[in-house]
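Support request, please re-run this one:
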Amino acid sequence: MNFAQDQLGPLLHDASRLVRKRFSQRASEYGLSSAQWRLLAVVLREGRASQARIADKLEIEPISVSRLVDRMEQAGWVAREPDPEDRRVRVIVPTASTLLIRNDLKAMADSVFAEALSGLPPEARAALIAGLASVTATLSQAICDAAANVKDT
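Re-run finished. Output below.
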């Protein structure tokens, strides 16, 4: 293992933590906690999502998502609706007022990403994004393959 490989884990962890912290600082302008911002990002990206899907995306327990959704529903950020495909499931959707400020939220996110990448020249930014996309694809496939192997046994 070389120096770069030794540093990959800590650097990914630190970069992710610092981006989340910066998002948290900026999201507080809207009265959102870090967890609420992350949940809202999932719902806005997907349009509608079950609590189980949100829990999976946020890597938290479903009961924690339920409490988080309760608070966000009371604040008017999201609503629960019946799933048209499974009446036992309720999906989380952004409210009309959230959709009205979607572009503002996106602009805020874009500014955090621009700030994070500001120390890199354009070609290094492109290489970083391509490299992280490759890492994500490789590990996603490995996880799927491992899960399939477990099911086969």
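The helical segments are 3-27, 34-46, 51-58, 62-74, 96-100, 102-117, 122-152. The mean pLDDT is 91.
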